[in-house]
Specification:
With 472 residues, the protein is an alpha/beta fold. It folds into two domains: 282 residues, 7-stranded beta/alpha barrel, CATH 3.20.110; 171 residues, no CATH class. Helices cover 46% and strands 8% of the residues. Strand 1, helix 1 and strand 2 form a beta-alpha-beta unit. Helix 1 packs parallel to helix 3 and helix 4 crosses helix 5. The longest helix is centred in the C-terminal third of the chain and has 23 residues. 49% of the residues are buried. Bound molecules: zinc ion. The site of zinc ion (ZN) has 8 residues, from loops. The site of zinc ion has 8 residues, from loops.
Length: 472
């Protein structure tokens, strides 16, 4: 076997679950004694992985909205994760943690402005957690177009990880990273994970029962089957929740795999950024745009029916409704801020400082204002920034991932949409949903009586009632 190195990447993430009005996660069906899914998966996965030190053994990213929840509920674990990353950073000069766009939105479906905000917020979140800028960024669902890579490169990101089928050449050698030719000429690299090993780890529990057996019966035969004449770098990529939540006690598998089993066979433990530090990238790759790791029809899964969910006719109208709502909210945001704020979109980009607790919204708005603002103007701007936050959050990919509309992820997205719309109406007197809500009459559940329009209008009405109650 040629000189080889190996890495596991875990994508740790939860969809936003907070009620937009209270900021807390309500009790969720199926989470049992834990109350909600974040807490349950925390106890089964995030905590045990931190306890066995896996955050210095694997490559990983933690979604910013999950980090925000954990910071609130279990700050000691956030510290422990950062401390483990610091060990790697101090020892090697690179980080084993990657950033992620702030919300888990499908970037090829997002506007250029949203791409920028989501990437920038994700970078700021990472920098706050780890104390230095990120070098790599994991894309939600690895959904990719060149504009997203360009936007990441502009903010200093140098690499991402993709599925092998996102390369144009189906026989591509995935044991080395590649350079991507960006129109801007900026430097950007792509690593591809090993699809066979990643599939086995994700979907064949017997492969992860014993780390030594995994190395002997899965990893080494796979490396031996690759006929190339350079040093090999193989990567397994999966959801991080696999290790302990989807499959019990796999945090121990992971820990021993990377702290003994792999290295005793002469295979080095590796990280993407460390590889880039120690090796030249020699070859370029052409990528297939609008592709992802979990839909085999490009990115159709998040906007239309596709072979993964052939009867999900609700997806298209929900996506169209949200696009129109977003445009309408953006128009209000721009119109009401343009004379008061130097650049409303720069203000939105900077709003992450408020989310991260680094600045009060009053101070932030004052920094960006063109004049002294009245209390009424300050309140208008604060409410419209909150609306922008929820109108980006409503696009979290989870809403469109499943078969039916009657799922908590989609219902939460409709709640965020209603909250954003309600806030805009509260601030400006204009209802930004206007005619768009009619599109939702085409979105129905097949398993219950839910329909998109009634659900959305119900959430909007209850928001208005809460505003009314609070004002008395
Ligand atoms: Zn699909």
């Amino acid at each position: 076997m040629l000189k080889s190195s190996f890495c596991v990447h875990g994508h740790f993430y939860q969809p936003p679950r907070e009620d937009p009005f209270t900021g807390e996660i309500p009790n969720e069906y199926g989470a049992g004694r834990f109350g909600n899914w974040c807490e349950r998966i925390y106890q089964e996965c995030y905590l045990p992985n931190a306890q066995v030190g896996n955050f210095q053994k694997i490559s990983y990213n933690i979604g910013p909205t999950l980090f925000a929840w954990m910071e609130k509920k279990h700050p000691e674990t956030v510290r422990a994760i950062a401390e483990q990353e610091k060990q790697v950073f101090q020892r090697t000069g690179i980080s084993n943690a990657m950033a992620q766009p702030y919300f888990h939105n499908i970037l090829p479906l997002a506007s250029e402005r949203d791409k920028n905000t989501l990437i920038l917020w994700g970078i700021k979140d990472y920098t706050k957690r780890f104390g230095h800028a990120p070098q790599g960024m994991w894309l939600p669902e690895t959904a990719m177009d060149l504009a997203s890579l360009e936007a990441m490169a502009v903010y200093g990101i140098q690499f991402t990880i993709l599925a092998p089928w996102q390369a144009k050449d189906p026989r591509l050698d995935t044991t080395q990273p590649y350079r991507v030719a960006l129109a801007s000429g900026k430097e950007f690299y792509v690593f591809f994970y090993n699809s066979f090993l990643s599939g086995e780890v994700s979907f064949n529990p017997s492969s992860t029962e014993n780390a030594d057996t995994f190395v002997r019966d899965w990893l080494i035969p796979q490396l031996d089957s690759i006929k190339v004449d350079h040093e090999l770098f193989s990567m397994v990529a999966s959801d991080g929740e696999l290790y302990g939540h989807h499959q019990p006690f796999r945090e121990r598998f992971l820990s021993y795999l990377l702290d003994g089993a792999v290295e005793k066979t002469g295979i080095e433990r590796q990280f993407p950024a460390l590889w880039l530090k120690e090796h030249a990238v020699e070859h370029s790759v052409e990528l297939l745009e609008n592709t992802s790791w979990s839909c085999h029809h490009g990115i159709e899964r998040w906007r239309n029916v596709c072979g993964d969910a052939p009867s999900a006719t609700w997806k298209k109208p929900v996506r169209e409704f949200m696009n129109r709502l977003a445009d309408s909210i953006d128009r209000e945001f721009e119109t009401h801020l343009q004379n008061l704020i130097r650049d409303p979109w720069e203000l939105r980009n900077a709003y992450v400082e408020v989310l991260l607790g680094e600045k009060s919204v009053e101070d932030l708005v004052a920094d960006h204002a063109t004049q002294d603002l009245t209390p009424g103007q300050r309140s208008l701007i604060r409410i419209l920034l909150e609306a922008e936050y929820d109108r980006m959050r409503m696009f979290a990919s989870d809403a469109w991932f499943y078969f039916d509309l009657d799922r908590i992820e989609l219902l939460n997205s409709l709640k965020y949409a209603a909250h954003a719309a309600g806030l805009v109406e509260q601030a400006t007197g204009h209802n930004p949903t206007d005619e768009a809500v009619k599109i939702l009459t085409q979105a129905h559940s097949e398993v219950s009586s839910l329909s998109g329009d009634i659900t959305f209008l119900g959430y909007l009405k209850s928001f208005e009632m809460k505003i009314e109650q609070n004002s008395h």
